[in-house]
Specification:
elongated, alpha+beta, 4 strands, two-stranded antiparallel ribbon, 6 helices
């Protein structure tokens, strides 16, 4: 995003971000814009709605523009924010931690003579699941 969002209201910035994501062919444009605006302001959805008419500060604008640039380049929301929600629980796991966790699961499976499969479920992000096989 080249134009500054500083001084724009939260709602105007969210709508601009949604339009930008749609033009960038991001399928979840509306949701992604809401999540990134909320993360920028450290607000949940209700907080974003309540803050709709307040202007963004220049610092918030810079942070939101950085998030938008990363999302438009194809980076997943979870990687941008460093967390992923699972059944309402926020989980934080770095790529290094994910690799270590997978390695530990494989080692434990071998020790117990359990056959497992590593199943990729997101080729874009490299995320995978371990299943008994």
């Amino acid at each position: 995003m080249t134009e500054s969002l500083a001084g724009q209201t939260v709602e105007t910035a969210r709508r601009a971000l949604t339009a930008r994501f749609k033009s960038g062919r991001i399928d979840s444009a509306e949701l992604d814009a809401r999540i990134l605006v909320g993360a920028t302001l450290d607000l949940d959805l209700t907080g974003v709605i309540a803050a709709a008419s307040r202007p963004l500060t220049s610092e918030e604008s810079i942070r939101l523009q950085d998030f938008a640039r990363r999302r438009l380049s194809g980076e997943p929301i979870a990687r941008i924010l460093g967390l992923k929600e699972f059944w309402g629980l926020p989980l934080t796991l770095s790529a290094a931690q994910a690799g270590a966790l997978a390695q530990k699961a494989i080692t434990n499976a071998r020790l117990r003579a359990v056959r497992i499969k590593i199943v990729p479920f997101s080729l874009h992000t490299g995320e995978a699941a371990l299943t008994r096989g």
